Amino acid sequence: MKFKKLKLERIVGYGSILLLLSLLAFADTSEPVDEKLLLSAFTFNVTKFVSWNQREGMKKSDAVIHIGVFQNPALLSTLQKITSGKLIDAHPVAVVSIETKALNPASMPEAVVLIPESGNLSKEVPKKLRGCKCLLITNGESTDQFGSVINFYSEDSHLRFTIDMEQAKIEGLELSSQLLKLGKIL
Amino acid sequence: MTKMKKDISLQGEIRRGQFIVTITVLLTCGFALVFSNWLISIRSANRTAQATASILSRNLVAPLLFRDLKEAQKTLSSLEDHPSFRGCLVLDLSNNIIAKFPDALPPTETIQKNWPEYDIQDHGERLARLILIPRREILAQDVLQYAVVILAVLLIAYFISLFASRATKDKIDGQIKNILQTTRAIRQQSNYTLRVQSATLHRENIAEIQALANDFNGMLATIETRDREIAGMNSGLEAIVEQRTAELREAQVSLVQSSRLSALGEMSASLAHEINNPLAIIDGKARMIKKSLQSMSACPADVIPGIERIESMADRIAKIIRGLRTMSRDGSGDPFEKVKLQSILNDALDLSSAKMKTRGIEVEVEPFDSEIMLDCRATQIGQVLLNLLNNAGDAIEKLSEKWVKVGIQLADARVVIAITDSGPGIPEEIRAKLMQPFFTTKAVGKGTGLGLSISRKIVEAHGGTFEIDASAKNTRFVIKLPLQRV
């Protein structure tokens, strides 16, 4: 009997090890996606689908497309890395930081990323920048409260975005149909 | 071991050659067609693939940039019912399939090397790879279509070539049959005047065969000409042989005649010598007796005429013997000398007179110039005249009216001697042969058939002519001799 008990214990023990190993083998080994990197990539990609050449001051090929990042040094740094040496429609790209006191609609860059590092964006900021003729990009559940053109949101572990066509019209932006196909049109 | 050579028909050979040429041409054309179509298909497929990949890539950039695989999948679904591609795959930079169409693409299907592959790029940055999956059945359909077209073309071309070959064969057949028929006819009939006729069934003839026929005709013409020449030479040879044979026989007979004449001459000389001596005694004694009797007064009146008669007969005998000696010798070697024609004629008349008298033939010599001198071989001319007189005597021997007339005339430094008898003339069919050697109308054993022939030769040797006067009512021979030797 003793012999039988020992054998059963061994079998259960080995089985448990095997089960653990197999579970480890089937475990999700994919690396977790860096949210800032993703946001940076999406921001840069969105700017690619805007017809910048139609805008005043962008007719020349050496005119720089500026992307301003509001109160987010980490995103600023990532975006700078991503866009380093890249061109959009033959225009060089420059990523700049925007401070609160510099929020003047008349002197805004071509694209403005309103995603503060704290995660809390004052409703007043987008309102203040309305009509700045720039691409306003925010990150949140809805664009209603922010009044931006592009708003990133998460859905089923995927980063999605909404497009406020009304706002794009106000800002005088022409967006690519491909972008429109991918985004949720408001 | 030598291989037996086989005869093959022209038709079979044409068909075989034609079949080989047709198949070769058609297969070459077929393969060229298939190859060119295949190249065109490949180029077209490449262009289609490039165009499709370009559209897909452009449309896939945004979904890939925003990691919207559903949209990417949606973009790929545009390939549904595409005529050239049955699906496609999108691979990330680690070669993992991140999107595919159709969804039900068998997982076992591995990526084929020959599937067209394109990079999806964004502003020169490679995002992913797009692989298009071509439809296999398209290629199979193309091949089948090509095969059907080629087969149809092959059959049509083969039938056209059959018709063409039949026409060619008929053309060649017609020309060759003509040549064959002609050669067979020539072989059977040995007739080299036949010629190969041009084939008239077709508007055109094969130039080489026509040239062969023309050369063959030329060869036949040459053979025909040579045939004629050989026949002509044969007949000429026969005539020459006949002439030579006749000349030989004539020479032989002439030789015999000559030897006979020679023997006769010798015999005549001997006889004359034997007769002349007693005859001289008779003549001498008769003259002496006559002289003695004339001196005698009592001589009977009828004795003297009797003795004179003896004298004249002795003269006559002497004359005959002299004539005989002259006529019986071969005078062909005698020199030409001027002789009175009357003397020659008298000798001949004397010799024939006994025969003429016996047969009751009256011989009349028409008056002529007795001083006519002839430059000739007197013996031979005398033999000619004697021969003509004897012939005339033989010819009219049995006629009721029997006479022979000799007429002599001078004309243009020639003497014309005509001997006419009472005969009815010589029939035309005999006249032509009469001068030929060995031709005679006399009974066997009575004539050699050489008399006239030799006489003509003698006259011609004297530069004269010897003719039968066909216009005369009676039989008339005319000899024309030049007075001076030619």
Please give the alpha-carbon distance between the first and last residues of chain A. Answer: 74 Å
Radius of gyration of chain A: 24 Å
The overall average pLDDT of chain B, rounded, is 82
Question: Could you please say which CATH topology of the domain at 335-486 in chain B applies here?
Answer: Heat Shock Protein 90
Mean pLDDT of chain A: 79
Largest interface: A-B, 16 and 11 residues
Spans of at least 5 consecutive residues with low confidence of chain A: 23-31
Global structural class of chain A: alpha/beta
Radius of gyration of chain B: 63 Å
Largest sheet descriptor of chain B: 5 strands, mixed
Using the alpha-carbon principal axes, give the shape of chain B. Answer: rod-shaped
Order of secondary-structure elements of chain B? HHEEEEHHHEHEEHEEHHEE
Overall 3D geometry of chain A?
elongated
CATH architecture identity of the domain at 335-486 in chain B: 2-Layer Sandwich
Order of strands in the sheet with most strands of chain B: 6-8-9-11-10
Query: What composes the largest sheet of chain A?
Result: 8 strands, mixed
Which CATH first-tier class of the largest domain in chain A would you pick? Alpha Beta
Describe this structure in words.
The complex is a heterodimer of chains A (186) and B (486). With 186 residues, chain A is of the alpha/beta class. Chain A folds into 2 domains: 30 residues; 151 residues, Rossmann fold. Chain A contains 6 helices and 8 strands, in the order H-H-E-H-E-E-E-H-E-E-E-H-H-E. Chain A has an 8-stranded mixed beta sheet with strand order 2-3-1-4-5-6-7-8. Chain B is of the alpha+beta class. Among the domains of chain B are: 143 residues, Beta-Lactamase; 152 residues, 2-Layer Sandwich (Heat Shock Protein 90), CATH 3.30.565. Chain B is 59% helix and 14% strand. In chain B, the strands form 3 sheets. In chain B, strands 6-8-9-11-10 form a 5-stranded mixed beta sheet. In chain B, strands 2-1-4-3 form a 4-stranded antiparallel beta sheet. In chain B, a hairpin with a 7-residue loop joins strand 10 and strand 11. In chain B, helix 1 runs antiparallel to helix 2, helix 4 runs antiparallel to helix 5 and helix 6 packs parallel to helix 7. The radius of gyration of chain B is 63 Å and the shape is rod-shaped. The two termini of chain B are 84 Å apart. The model of chain B has no long low-confidence stretch (mean pLDDT 82). At the A-B interface, helix 2, strand 2, strand 7 and helix 6 of A face helix 1 of B.
